[in-house]
Amino acid sequence: MSLLSSRADRRAWWQQRLAPLLVRYDRELVAALRRPGDRPVRPTKVRLQTRHGRVDALLYAPEEQRCDLPVHVHLHGGAFVMRRPRMDEFVAQHLVDRLGIAVLLPDYAVAPQVRYPVAHEQVHDVLLRLSEQGPHWGLDPTRVSVGGFSSGGNLAAAAALLARDSGGPRLRALTLGVPSLDVASTWAQKAVSLPAGAQPMLGASVLELVRATYFRDPDARRQPYGSPLLAPSLSRLPPTLVVTAGLDLLREEGERFAARLDESGVAVRLHRVEGRDHYFLDPTNVAAELDLLASHLRTTLA
Predict the structure, then answer these.
(1) Strands 102-106, 53-60: pairing kind
(2) Is 161 helix (H, G, I), strand (E, B) or coil?
(3) How many angstroms separate the CA atoms of 9 and 65, rounded?
(4) CA distances (Å), 82 to each of 87, 152, 213, in order?
(5) Contacts of 175 (CB under 8 A, 6+ apart)
(6) Rounded CA gap, 9 and 208, in Å?
(7) Which DSSP helix (H) or strand (E) runs through 140?
(8) pLDDT (tens digit, 9 = 90+) per residue, 103-161?
(9) What pLDDT, in 10s, does the model give residues 234-268?
């Protein structure tokens, strides 16, 4: 069967090719965060071997310190079909500048080239490889955290569950921004929780693209790593920050995940950005929201 045998696969393939044109907010947010005298951090390209082949990544670190750095692994979004780590470069720049830590942006695989669980297992393996390769890059393998936005939040939550269930690595923190945590529910089931008349940015076609490409197998959508909200237990996860947006289609699942963490005895902070949809960051609020992320990592990681 051809890689692009379905309409959904062809659509996903074109979105990958057009990602540099479709994703434009990153430059605006970098500019909004820049302070007088700031010098952009130039990333180093590194490679990590996983059970599904090599994963390239961008490593951002302060120039003046290159040993025993805590490292935060941040996973970009893009509905499991867009492949562009630099779309969240503004996160890496901000955390390096504010905390003096290292930030790793992995270039994990996406659909239609792969299906679940390839990207999920790649991310977990990246965390494992940091314990071996990290010291060569000046990183402290005992101080690692993981997080992500949207589909990257799904991968981050799953990686934390995989690390817990497989005996490592030990993570210091988990950060989830407008995360996708339940790919089993339909668009209509998710939309019930929105205010009457709301027209969420994530339309039914986006969710169906996810389900028809990366999560093509219906059984995979209900697996605990595919839909972390459905995991039987959320106990023993690292201290977690969950950020939701008031008008986002994914708001309820993020807040339910936070509630379950609290019930399980996990230290969790839930922050809702009122009046915002899925793209909850813009130049007017990005500094404040990323400072919240930095505060969480300052107390748990750095």
Answers:
(1) antiparallel
(2) helix
(3) 44
(4) 10, 11, 12
(5) 72, 145, 146, 147, 148, 156, 240, 241, 243, 293, 296, 297
(6) 11
(7) strand 139-149
(8) 999 999 999 999 999 999 999 999 999 989 999 999 999 999 999 999 999 999 999 99
(9) 999 999 999 999 999 999 999 999 999 999 999 99
Kindly list the domain boundaries of the chain, sorted by start residue.
7-301
**Nearest to 152, CA basis, from 214, 216, 93, 98:** 214
CATH topology of domain 7-301: Rossmann fold (3.40.50)
DSSP helix/strand/coil, 73:
strand
pTM over 0.85: yes
Token pair belonging to 71: 């490292």
Q: Which residue has the tokens 């809702």?
A: 272
248 in Cβ contact with 146 (< 8 Å) = no
How many residues can be counted in the chain? Answer: 302
pLDDT tens, position by position, 223-233: 999 999 999 99
CA–CA dist 291, 39 (Å, integer): 19
